[in-house]
Amino acid sequence: MALTEAGHTISGPWWTTLRQTAEAEVVEVLFCWPTTQIPAEPVGISGTIVESGTLPARDELFVTLETSDDDSDLGDLGAEAAQIAMIEQANDDGLELVHGSIRQVGVLADDGTPEAIELVIAIQ
Q1: From the CB of residue 102, how many other CB atoms can be counted at a distance below 10 Å?
Q2: Strands ordered across the beta sheet of 103-108
Q3: For residue 77, what pLDDT is reported?
Q4: Which residues contact 63 (CB under 8 A, 6 or more apart)?
Q5: Above pLDDT 70, what percent of the chain?
Q6: What percent of the chain has pLDDT over 90?
Q7: Are 90 and 27 in contact (CB under 8 A)?
Q8: Angle at 89 between CA 85 and CA 93, to 5 degrees
Q9: What is the residue-averaged pLDDT of the chain?
Q10: What is the 3-class SS of the chain, one letter each residue?
């Protein structure tokens, strides 16, 4: 809502990832919404740090996890099993993964309701 209220148009599904900080035992959780343009002015959301940027061009692997109405099928074991299977397949195919690059991307139906999650990992 903060982005649209500031005049920005959402141009795709949200995604999340974890980012390592300078402290080895601390990670940041990033929650991202792509917009048609990078905001020229910072967008303020109370209690958060808002950053703007662009992901670099890269090749990625992904697996889609379809959701049910209550999302019970996206428990930790389902997502973990899918991630392990994707990594094993990449290794079998001789692909080199970019460490720390996994993202969870929301897949939205035409009406904007969530219908799946994609686990995405960058490859070199």
Answers
A1: 20
A2: 27-32, 15-20, 103-108, 114-123, 59-66
A3: 60
A4: 82, 83, 85, 86, 118, 119
A5: 91
A6: 21
A7: no
A8: 175
A9: 84
A10: CHHHHCCCCECCCCEEEEEECCCCCCEEEEEECCECCCCCCCCCCCCCCCCCCCCCCCEEEEEEEECCCCCHHHCHHHHHHHHHHHHHHHHHCCCCECCCCCEEEEEECCCCCEEEEEEEEEEC
Whole-angstrom Cα distance, residue 120 to residue 74? 15
Q: State pLDDT tens for residues 10-58.
A: 888 889 998 888 888 888 899 998 999 888 887 888 888 888 888 889 9
* Phi, psi dihedral angles at 21 (to 5 degrees): -105, 180
Q: What is the pLDDT of residue 70?
A: 58
Token pair 């002015």 is found at 41
Question: Among 113, 123, 117, which Cα is nearest to 105's?
Answer: 117
Residue type present at position 123: I
In this prediction, residue 71 carries a pLDDT of 52
CA 90 – CA 123 distance, rounded (Å): 9
